């Protein structure tokens, strides 16, 4: 799933926790947002492996909810929601598409890495790929109640995320072609160490 969907999903989790514990609504919302975003910071460094931990984030979230329930504070609740957001993101990616450059082709058997079992989880494709119509629908479904309930800066973040989701979904199918042209033209002039750091999916596409 695309980053806006994960960001909105994290905020929705934060909102739900905030409904139960209104005194921590603000910190829960922020923690959910950042937890939802965190895993995708690995986009260009071992994507869906380096910062995606479906099992370990889930375990951390379960553990973190004990102090959050026993001794609720901004710190304990924030940490629990943060790990819950990161866990939900990592698990949700297993229900999306694979890691290939054109995930709508459905050729990759890698959705997200399971460090606990040392293997890739196969994509379930309930949401066919990141930026697919189904993904956009999910983003907008999450954004609708959030934008109704929130106001001020949080509402702006929701609307901006939804706008990015619409734009990304609109251009998603063209992105691999653009990336291929860019990389084909840049490869001869890029230093070797930069080429070595390019994600495999781009280099595989170029060598095909
Ligand atoms: Zn992800």
Structure report:
- It contains 9 helices and 2 strands.
- With 208 residues, it is mainly α.
- The chain has one domain.
- The chain has a two-stranded antiparallel sheet.
- The longest helix is centred in the C-terminal third of the chain and has 20 residues.
- It is globular, with a radius of gyration of 18 Å.
- The model has no long low-confidence stretch (mean pLDDT 94).
Count of DSSP strands: 2
The amount of helix comes to 55-70%
Mean pLDDT: 94
N→C terminal distance: 26 Å
Radius of gyration, taken over Cα atoms and rounded to an integer in Å: 18 Å
Low-confidence stretches: none
Strand content: under 5%
For the sheet with most strands, the description reads: 2 strands, antiparallel
Gross morphology is: globular
What structural category characterises the helix and strand content?
mainly alpha
**H/E topology pattern:** HHHHEEHHHHH
User: Which molecules other than protein and nucleic acid are bound?
Assistant: zinc ion
Annotate the secondary structure layout:
Blueprint: H1 3-20, H2 25-37, H3 54-70, H4 74-92, E1 112-114, E2 119-121, H5 133-149, H6 152-171, H7 175-186, H8 192-197, H9 200-207
Antiparallel strand pairs: 1-2
Helix pairs in contact: 1-2, 1-4, 1-5, 1-6, 2-4, 3-4, 5-6, 7-9
This protein binds zinc ion (ZN).
Task: Kindly list the characteristics that best describe this protein.
2 strands, 208 residues, 3% strand, binds zinc ion, single chain, mainly alpha, two-stranded antiparallel ribbon, 9 helices
How would you sum up this structure in a few lines?
By secondary structure, this protein is mostly helical. It has helices at 3-20, 25-37, 54-70, 74-92, 133-149, 152-171, 175-186, 192-197, 200-207, and strands at residues 112-114, 119-121.
């Amino acid at each position: 799933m695309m980053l806006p969907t994960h960001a909105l999903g994290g905020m929705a989790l934060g909102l739900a926790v905030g409904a139960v514990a209104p005194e921590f609504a603000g910190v829960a919302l922020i923690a959910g947002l950042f937890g939802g975003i965190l895993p995708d910071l690995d986009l260009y460094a071992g994507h869906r492996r380096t910062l995606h931990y479906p099992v370990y984030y889930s375990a951390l979230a379960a553990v973190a909810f004990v102090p959050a329930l026993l001794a609720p504070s901004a710190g304990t609740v924030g940490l629990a929601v943060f790990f819950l957001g990161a866990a939900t993101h990592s698990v949700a990616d297993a229900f999306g598409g694979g890691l290939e450059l054109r995930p709508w082709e459905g050729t990759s058997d890698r959705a997200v890495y399971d460090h606990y079992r040392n293997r890739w989880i196969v994509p379930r494709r309930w949401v066919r790929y990141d930026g697919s119509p189904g993904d956009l629908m999910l983003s907008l479904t999450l954004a609708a109640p959030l934008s109704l309930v929130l106001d001020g800066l949080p509402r702006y973040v929701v609307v901006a995320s939804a706008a990015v989701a619409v734009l990304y979904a609109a251009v998603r199918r063209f992105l691999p072609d653009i990336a291929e042209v860019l990389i084909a033209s840049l490869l001869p002039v890029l230093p070797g160490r930069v080429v070595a750091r390019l994600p495999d999916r781009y280099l595989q596409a170029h060598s095909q």
